Amino acid sequence: MIRAHAGFDRWLDRGLRLVVGGLFILAGVLKILGPEKFATDVSNYRLVPHALINLVAILVPWIEVVAGVCVLAGVWLRAAAQVVTGMTVVFFFVIVSALARGLNIECGCFGTVGGKHVGLVNLAIDSALFCLAILLLRRTPDRPTTDADAAEETPSPAPL
Amino acid sequence: MSSSRDGSRGRAFPRALAIVLLGVGLGLVGNLISPRGLPLVTPPKRIPKPEEFISLEKAKELWSSGTALFLDAREPADYAAGHIGTALNLPALSFERHFGDVAPLITPASPLVLYCDGQECDQSHRLAESLRRLGYTNSLILSNGWTVWRQAGLPTKQGGKE
After folding, report:
1. A94 CA to chain B: closest CA distance, Å?
2. Could you tell me if the ipTM is greater than 0.90?
3. Cα nearest neighbour of B5 on chain A
4. What is the mean pLDDT of each run of 10 residues along chain B (162 residues)?
5. In whole angstroms, what separates CA A8 from the centre of its chain?
6. pTM for this entry
7. Rounded to whole angstroms, how far apart are CA atoms B71 and B130?
């Protein structure tokens, strides 16, 4: 029973890492392949000063990819989970802001794919991603997840 | 609480920062070496003058009479999903690659109506700029063109290049 539970836990963790890490890598790569289009999408939200639009369009996708790779590979997992969770929170408020202002714009969430206009569907997808990221964060063990982490950890003294 | 648990948690934030900084570094390097790299500082936007825009009613007249050629400035996938009937696709973001398809059909004096989609969309503006640089100055922009055309129930089509 305990072994079955541990097995389920392991598969759940792997599944979470695959979905969250995979989606972030996909989203980042699609934007990297279409930087001008993503810069246009960033501009459309009218949240970033004009001069900084290109910088945001250049950097955000790569942060997504690096965080996604770390999640997928289980490297610095807790830290990577913090980054992806933070990004979903930022995206949530960006989408809410666009909806509140009634902007008829493309989401830009997954690069040039689909060209779907920002709406409640995007909010729902981002919320789902946020929930998965939070679940990943909560399930990220404090024990080492890789051999490198294990080498860094020092054993704690036994309590008196 | 064990010290290893505290140690892990204490390291999470610096590692998170390192992940972000690694992304920043790779982004800057990737942009530098990419043929599609963007200028780090966004160039100033050219705002079209009011006389460069056309109303929906006027655009409908030009379309009905066949007087103007309509050009869809959006990406090919958006064009294929639906476009103004008889409009050709000339994506603003890949102008150089696609202009050759349209060039044989127009002259510098040809009346053109350019459109994209969304109140904030400036792809039609970029297309107008690209055409202007090549001497095609007789173009007008239908703002938020795809949405207003559809909402007016005017003829549309689906599918790739006409």
Report:
1. 15
2. no
3. A142
4. 44 92 97 93 83 94 95 91 94 85 93 88 87 92 93 92 60
5. 24
6. 0.68
7. 13
